[in-house]
């Protein structure tokens, strides 16, 4: 006589499939949470740091552009020139490590402001900086600082740094876990371009601009905007390769 399955066999099989499905969904949810945890937290505050002899008003157009995305966009206050460089670095270091703030910071620098930011980040292992966008940064001296140093020597502390090849490159590799972008101006008498291919997580762009106009150009605003708020999952190493050129 042919045996027939027990009435509960189909029911038990159905329960097994449901349990397996629930397990799969749980695993999928866990994977989603893990992926979400690997994503960088959003940037709450953008800090704009001007360069040598640069008024804060020069960064107002960029500030206005970036205010659509961040809760706060602040232009850092410092002396235009003849600053105490150690005091400037220490003050910024204290700001980016302030334990009373839980916000994530994106820093956008121009010229000598980048040198100050790099020193502050390098000495602050517990900083809250998520990304550093460096516009025409001081890494190598350009023609104008060399002339100023020839005429005035180390009278101006900032020029003393820029004209010194070793000091100008100081803390170039300030934090290997930091997302970074560098924008060079093609016509720049203020700073010299440098090879950054040895640094991780750095995107490099070159734009048609001068040392002064580069922070006023809408195409640069858009590059900074995309870097700070769209590239939240990291970036590819940059350099001077054709693929890293940009004029958009």
Main attributes of the structure:
248 residues, alpha/beta, Rossmann fold, 2 domains, six-stranded parallel sheet, two-stranded antiparallel sheet, 8 helices
Fold and architecture overview:
By secondary structure, the protein is an alpha/beta fold. The chain folds into two domains: 11-38; 41-137 and 171-244, Alpha/Beta hydrolase fold, catalytic domain (Rossmann fold), CATH 3.40.50. 37% of the residues lie in helices and 18% in strands. The strands form two sheets. The chain has a six-stranded parallel β-sheet with strand order 2-1-3-4-6-8, sandwiched between helices. α2 links the parallel β1 and β2. α3 (85-96) packs across α4 (112-122). Mean pLDDT is 84; it is low at 1-7, 18-38 and 233-248.
Secondary structure tally, helices: 8
What CATH calls the topology of the largest domain is Rossmann fold
Order of helices and strands: HEHEHEHEEHHHEEEH
CATH architecture of the largest domain: 3-Layer(aba) Sandwich
- What would you call the quaternary organization? single chain
Structural class: alpha/beta
Task: Determine the N-to-C terminus distance.
Answer: 81 Å
